[in-house]
């Protein structure tokens, strides 16, 4: 049985599929910056193949493909895949229908697995991340929301404090009147999520983790990017190439 919120989000994307590019894809935005960082790191780390989870109309698939990487995409909404095919058939054919919670690939099928602005749309992001970790051989990249960087500073500090005390889930439950999620015309169904919520899960799999602000500028703050960036890139690297760096005596 499909969860009511999942059905509502699928309907939202089906109804807005024709306008998806205009509504959600902006050249030079935080996810394009994340993609630029990822492409650079991938070349350093010897990564050649990617799986993009929640591909939408193919923004990340197109970018990585055009950068010379082997890439596949998974998207649960057929209407968005159809838009990808209309926009650029060679990219659309790289995207197949599937759920992030149950990726249709064997363990370790790709060097790296990535997602862009997907996890704040799912109730259980840890389920999606577990599948991403299963399918990835070398790296996982999470470019997504950071609730601790949203709102005025006192609000950010309050959210961080409540989270550290283990009270945020209860507060959010009351705030949303038990729905747990919110809804907007610009983003459909979305949940209160921070990339930092997934840090421990990815760190338990990876040998290295890196957190990067995708703001486009760097505030002079010790709290950067935790309390300053609304969107953050979290990188988990499992296998560190031994020949990448040469240490000089």
Outline the structure in words.
With 249 residues, the protein is of the alpha/beta class. The chain has one domain (4-147, 181-237): Rossmann fold (3-Layer(aba) Sandwich). The protein is built from ten helices and nine strands. It has helices spanning 4-16, 20-24, 30-45, 59-66, 78-87, 89-92, 125-135, 153-164, 168-175, 199-203; strands spanning 49-53, 70-75, 95-97, 110-116, 136-145, 181-184, 188-191, 208-213, 231-237. The strands form two sheets. Strands 3-2-1-4-5-9-8 form a seven-stranded mixed sheet. The chain has a two-stranded antiparallel ribbon with strand order 6-7. The radius of gyration is 18 Å and the shape is globular. The chain starts with a helix and ends in a 12-residue tail after the last strand. Mean pLDDT is 92; it is low at 243-249.
Helical content stands at 25-40%
CATH topology: Rossmann fold
Number of strands: 9
Low-confidence stretches: 243-249
Summary?
The protein is 37% helix and 21% strand. It is α/β, with parallel strands linked by helices and 249 residues long. The chain has a seven-stranded mixed sheet. It has a two-stranded antiparallel ribbon with strand order 6-7.
Can you give keywords for this protein?
249 residues; alpha/beta; Rossmann fold; 7-stranded mixed sheet; two-stranded antiparallel sheet; 9 strands; 37% helix; disordered C terminus
Give the helices and strands, then pairings.
Blueprint: H1 4-16, H2 20-24, H3 30-45, E1 49-53, H4 59-66, E2 70-75, H5 78-87, H6 89-92, E3 95-97, E4 110-116, H7 125-135, E5 136-145, H8 153-164, H9 168-175, E6 181-184, E7 188-191, H10 199-203, E8 208-213, E9 231-237
Parallel strand pairs: 1-2, 1-4, 2-3, 4-5
Antiparallel strand pairs: 5-9, 6-7, 8-9
């Amino acid at each position: 049985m499909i969860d009511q919120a999942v059905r509502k989000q699928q309907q939202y994307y089906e109804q807005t599929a024709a306008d998806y590019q205009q509504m959600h894809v902006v050249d030079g935005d935080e996810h394009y910056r994340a993609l630029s960082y990822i492409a650079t790191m991938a070349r350093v780390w010897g990564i050649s193949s990617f799986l993009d989870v929640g591909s939408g109309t193919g923004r990340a698939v197109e970018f990585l493909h055009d950068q010379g990487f082997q890439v596949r995409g998974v998207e649960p909404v057929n209407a968005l895949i159809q838009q990808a095919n209309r926009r650029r058939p060679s990219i659309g054919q790289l995207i197949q229908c599937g759920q992030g919670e149950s990726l249709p690939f064997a363990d370790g099928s790709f060097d790296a697995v990535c997602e862009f602005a997907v996890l704040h749309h799912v109730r259980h992001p840890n389920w999606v991340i577990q599948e991403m970790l299963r399918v990835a051989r070398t790296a996982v990249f999470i470019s997504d929301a950071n609730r601790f960087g949203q709102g005025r500073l006192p609000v950010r500090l309050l959210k961080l404090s409540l989270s550290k005390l283990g009270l945020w889930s209860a507060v959010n439950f009351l705030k949303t009147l038990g729905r747990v999620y919110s809804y907007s015309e610009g983003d459909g169904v979305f949940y209160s999520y921070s990339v930092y919520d997934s840090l421990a899960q990815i760190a338990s799999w990876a040998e290295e983790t890196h957190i990067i602000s995708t703001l486009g500028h760097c505030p002079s703050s010790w709290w950067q990017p935790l309390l300053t960036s609304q969107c953050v890139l979290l990188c988990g690297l499992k296998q560190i190439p031994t020949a990448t760096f040469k240490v000089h005596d």
